[in-house]
Amino acid sequence: MAIHTLENGRLKVVINEMGGVIDVFTYGDERPFDILRPRIHDGTNFAGNSSLFPMLPMVNRIRDNQFDWQGRRVVLPINESVDSHFFLHGNGWLTQWQCQANAECEHTVLKLAMASDIEGVCHYEAEQTYKLDGDRLTITLCLTNIGDEVFPFGIGFHPFFHCLPDTLIKFSAQGIWLEDVHYLPTDFMEHIPDVFNFGQGKTIPTVWINNGYYLAEDGVNIILKHPNRVAVVVTSPCRYLQVYKPTGYSDFLCLEPQSQSVNSHKTLYLDDSSNSLSILAPHHSMHIVMTIKVHEW
């Protein structure tokens, strides 16, 4: 397990090659404030305990853990130690990544890479770039199809943003997918229930949240304002955002920019807003970007 630290005097990021995850992201020097929830230390190196992990070659869950693609049934593998029913968040977060040689400043930029051959499913390679620049962290995730066939891919980021009891959140959306008992999306709705509508800004509710949002063309633009006067602005061109928190007060909120909506593999042949996968021919690539900007208000 290799750990890398990026810092520029204002921001500090600790990156773990196991899973290609972030373990720590703080703001400030004398009394650092956690921008992301710090890694939970339980004696394991499980990526789900990290501050942020990548999702690839697909995100979240697919109904029945299988889908039809070009005349064949694609059955996804299951890792019983993670989820007994689903190929949860893909396998990129469970894979060893490797640091890449980097000509830029080693204190503010890091590149990681990995490759995976999922038997009967797909063969891909991926690269993540983490870059600190002044008051912001930018993460780029790129996936390339290195298989012999065209395949539908989706990628995303799964950050756990640190929250205080009176943290305010604001973002606009064009619609929402609620969830069913299997944590999978119900039908898309343009009307967003008040409790899940953050368009005007409000404190984070105590209800369970596990919903997908469809965003405007400019993508993700989220503002978190903490009572200690630290503000966090999250931006990404992605038009799909999954939001998760457990019931009750939570010291984290997952705000997950994604290239696809959840369960899109089941709607590949439907002409609607959930048809969001990237169909990549061999040796073709896709990428997403997320920027986390920190300042005081």
UniProtKB/TrEMBL annotation:
Pfam family, any one: Aldose_epim
Domain of life assignment: Bacteria
A GO BP entry: carbohydrate metabolic process
One MF annotation (Gene Ontology) recorded for this entry: isomerase activity
Name of this chain's protein: Aldose 1-epimerase
Higher taxonomy: Bacteria, Pseudomonadati, Pseudomonadota, Gammaproteobacteria, Vibrionales
